[in-house]
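Reopening this ticket.

The earlier resolution said the output was attached, but the attachment link was broken on my side. Pasting everything inline this time so it's all in one place.
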Amino acid sequence: MNHDTELRQFAEAVKSIAASLAKDCDAMLMKSKDQIPASQAGDPSVETHLKLPSLARTLYKARRARDDIAPERDLFQNPAWDILLDLYIAHSEDKYISVTSASLAANVPLTTALRWVWHLEQLDLIARKIDPSDRRRSFVSLTSTGLVMIERALTDTYSRFNAMFLQANPA
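Inline output:
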């Protein structure tokens, strides 16, 4: 297979992921409108905030799909972002995430992921707590600083996608 053919196949796969992401975003928009209290309906910041967990899930799925189509498995690695997305999704679902689980979410070797967990702790973006029922295990979660940072990043991403879709599909 020549290089041009590989690039075309890669471009088609990326196009397919983009279409899937657009479909997921449309579904997210329709579902989230039903979750807004009547008193806050029409407030763009409230509407956007309610969509962030769904956006985080969609972005995480798109990242895994992108990894599957890349010619090299580690071509698109970004362990810190993957860990933060996973912790944000867990936060939105009121779930606890073990250090091991957060490391697996990064989709890199365990030692690499553990270094990133440590680094994110040093930046005060995540906190580690020992499991009281099994002191050999630790849980990680976003700190308030980490939560604000990821919500700002997701809000910006949402706004950019929303603006792009509105330009592509004017009313």
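Reporter confirms the inline version is readable. The longest helix spans residues 3-33. The first strand starts at residue 97 and ends at 98.
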